[in-house]
Structures are given as structure tokens and as C-alpha cells.
Description:
Blueprint: H1 5-13, E1 17-20, H2 23-29, E2 36-38, E3 41-46, H3 56-64, H4 74-93
Helix pairs in contact: 1-3
Amino acid sequence: MELTSEQIAAARARGCTFLPATEEQVARLTMQRRIFTIDGQPHVAIRQDEAVKETHGAVALLIEGGTPRSDETSQQAAAAEAEVTLELAGETAAGRGGAQVVRRATRPRAPWRGAKRGA
């Protein structure tokens, strides 16, 4: 989500802080919609507790003047980040850097001998 200077000012007025995001944070948090672009650079948004990175929806509510529900705890946010980190580590270990395709093992078939099947 690209933020304008007006949107940044509105979010900051409601207690939101934007910090530059590391490459590792961008890899982990992009799919969770927790990375914001400010002047072409990735940032994370935090309020009160630095362990909880705000989502696009929460920041949009702040900008509009609403108050996002704070259902997600620091532990839940950390668990979600750990889950994504493990998934990324598994993909990297597979050497693909992307989705991993797992094929089912199948039994080799005997060559067809010309007889009718099922007879």
C-alpha cells in the first residue's frame, strides 16, 4: 500500500509510527499485508506495542478516523510471523525459492500385453 504524505500525517496523528522495513520483514510480512511503501521504500506500521505490525486495513481505518479493533495480541502476531518464517525457510531449503511441488509416489505399471482389460 503506497501512502501519501496526507495519509501518513493522519495515521501519525492517531498514534501510528512508520519504521523502515528490513528485507527479512518484507519477505515475511508482505503476504500478511503489513508492508507499506513510503516514497518508494518499504515500511512497517506500529502502534503502542512494537511486536504487532499493523495491517493495511487497520491503517486505512486510522487514516479515515476510525479505531481498528485490537484483537490480535503480541503473541498471535509473533506466532503468525514465525509460521511464515518457517514456510519461507522450507522453500529456501528446497532450493527453489518458491512454491514446492510434492508428487505422490505411484506404483510402476506393467506393460500392456494386448489382452482385454478386465477379462
